[in-house]
Amino acid sequence: MDESAIKGLNLLELNDSGDDSGDDSGDDSGDDSGADSQTPRISSTTVSVEGYDTWLRKYPLKLVLEKHFASCGEITNIYVPTDFERGILKSVAFMRIEGEGAEEKALQLSGTDIGGWTAIVKPAPWQKVFMDDPRYAGPRCAAAPADTKTHMIRITGYDTSLPKIDMQIALYKHFSSCGSIWKVIVLKSGAAFIYLEGERCVDKALELSGRNMGGSTLVVEPVVPRPDILKKRRPLACTTTGYTLPSTLLEVAKKKKKMETEKEKEKEKEKEKEKGKEKEKEKEKEKEKEKEKKMMEMVKNKKMHKLKMKTKMNMYMEK
To answer: pTM for this structure?
Structure first.
């Protein structure tokens, strides 16, 4: 198993962007002295999952994993490490599951298909290491990248009879064209909230208001925090341990942004090269046409010459 991925496994106790669960650090560690001996302990386990495409987006991958392993128990957290140097996901994800026989049930799903890829499930050690992902900082974290601005929209009108995870996946797919979706929250009250980033992401989402999704007409509204609340807000620490992410991680985030920009430039260069190749092909076609035209002219002239010579010969023979 990737050592750097294992080092980040403790994120399962932190304020994960894709889960609403709280801190479960007291589940299976610590001193039991003074605790009620009659209170049953909740069985919990951590498993690793491999086999997914590392170019996938993190949040939809977490939603798919939560749905696929829902029968194993209560999934309290999912951690998908990121390779910031390459700008892709790491090949191993981790899940914290609570419930009797959770590990056995999860291991039984090893080898099953998850939307086109085969899951490889293994038991994983429980690690107590701090997270290393500045993207989990959230929109109010002091260490979050400066160019990241997260917006929120409110959605109503969807089918509330569907399971929460199914609705999260459906809403993600429906609004994925609007921008980068950071989180989808579905409440029992019949309202859902989506955190999203990107140019004109809110405007694009509002354009989907009144559209049909699975037979229901959605109502989309922007969520704008009141100015007095914004003034009272303080930047949040990036983890539940209370410290701010080191500047080295911010440098990594900047490097990732730079790499993405360079990739875009490379793509543009490739497009220009393709255009150049297309132009060359067009020129070659034109040359071939000219060549064929000249050949036809030559054949025509040759026939005319033969005809003239034949006519002269006939005239000479008649004399």
So the answer is: 0.55
